[in-house]
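Tokens for chain A. Residues wanted.
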């Protein structure tokens, strides 16, 4: 089945919905395609104990605040329900259970293939990220079959683990969270990997409330691609390796978690081996090692050495093709819910101006 539509937005997460909001305000004709059964499922599918690292006053999209206290930290279900309500409130034309398989150039724009449906469109906004593949080292296949292995994207709760010790690989946000949860559930736990700094004060303390407003403003207005500090920070954020926030080293130590900077580098006799030569006799390994972004399904998109699309604030080198939702797309806040709305607004302004210019009749020379 073929369908003609002016603009296709790929992805109904916060980036896609913010883009849809701005398109609707400008009266553009568009659809938002998403592979999940419900808006917000990408949040519902994450580990049960997940809560956002930013307070509610930094977790709202354009035109709608997060409900409840501005100082609360929404959990995954609250965030999922917020996104679903957002799409309904602004009557955004979201089509769920519609995963996009391919975006390709056509003579008059693009073709977007989603299952049995082919959309012909003048403009495409990729707001889904890449087709994310869990990053797990190849040597993981050499671990003994009795060891439970879970990537963080497949982990939901401690009941998935076997009795006995746990190795958590990767010491960023999810690694800290899951190491603490594992230890509190009674598992001797080792956290492997270098920590990239930590918040100096408790995330949910009184001092953090004031700091949250300051840091939120700095992430939005100071740490941008227009400032030297922002340009220095951007490659680090895009490469991953974020600092510990809610769970800090002191919390891990108090719970009995052993942290080591030594990376997990291989397998010896079926057990994980660290860079310092130690072999750990564990019954579980949690891979908090991030994802590989794969944008190969967007054929006209140029990708840099870091695996991310090459854009100017979301405007690609292919006319009519845009991206929203990249880490540090314009500022440190681009990775936060409250920052993606500005990025979406910029892209939609460019998209709208380009579309109007293309549809303007050409005057004949006198």
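Reply:
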């Amino acid at each position: 089945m073929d369908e003609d539509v002016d603009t296709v937005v790929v992805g109904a997460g916060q980036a896609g919905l913010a883009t849809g909001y701005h398109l609707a305000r400008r009266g553009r004709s568009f659809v938002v395609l998403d592979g999940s059964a419900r808006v917000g499922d990408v949040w519902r599918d994450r580990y049960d104990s997940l809560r956002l690292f930013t307070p509610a006053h930094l977790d709202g999209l354009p035109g709608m605040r997060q409900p409840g206290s501005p100082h609360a930290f929404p959990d995954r279900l609250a965030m999922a329900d917020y996104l679903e309500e957002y799409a309904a409130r602004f009557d955004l034309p979201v089509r769920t259970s519609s995963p996009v398989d391919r975006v390709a150039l056509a003579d008059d724009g693009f073709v977007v293939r989603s299952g049995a449906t082919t959309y012909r469109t003048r403009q495409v906004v990729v707001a889904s990220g890449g087709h994310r593949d869990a990053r797990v080292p190849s040597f993981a296949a050499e671990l003994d079959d009795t060891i439970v292995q879970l990537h963080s994207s497949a982990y939901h709760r401690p009941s998935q683990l076997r009795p006995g010790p746990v190795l958590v690989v990767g010491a960023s946000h999810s690694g800290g969270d899951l190491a603490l949860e594992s230890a509190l559930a009674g598992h001797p736990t080792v956290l492997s990997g270098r920590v990239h700094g930590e918040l100096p004060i408790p995330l949910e303390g009184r001092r953090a409330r004031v700091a949250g407003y300051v840091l939120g403003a700095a992430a939005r207005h100071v740490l941008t691609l227009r400032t030297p500090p922002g340009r220095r920070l951007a490659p680090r954020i895009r490469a991953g390796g974020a600092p510990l926030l809610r769970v800090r080293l002191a919390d891990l130590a108090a719970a009995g978690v052993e942290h080591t900077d030594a990376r997990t580098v291989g397998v010896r006799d079926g057990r994980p081996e660290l860079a310092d030569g130690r072999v750990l006799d564990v019954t579980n390994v949690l891979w908090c090692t991030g994802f590989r972004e794969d944008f190969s399904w967007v054929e006209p998109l140029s990708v840099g050495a870091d695996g991310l699309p090459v854009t100017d604030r979301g405007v690609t080198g292919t006319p009519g093709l845009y991206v929203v939702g990249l880490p540090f797309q314009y500022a440190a806040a681009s990775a936060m819910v409250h920052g993606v709305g500005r990025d979406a607004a910029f892209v939609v302004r460019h998209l709208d101006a380009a579309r109007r210019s293309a549809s303007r009749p050409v005057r004949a020379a006198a």
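The first helix runs from residue 14 to 25. The first strand starts at residue 2 and ends at 4.
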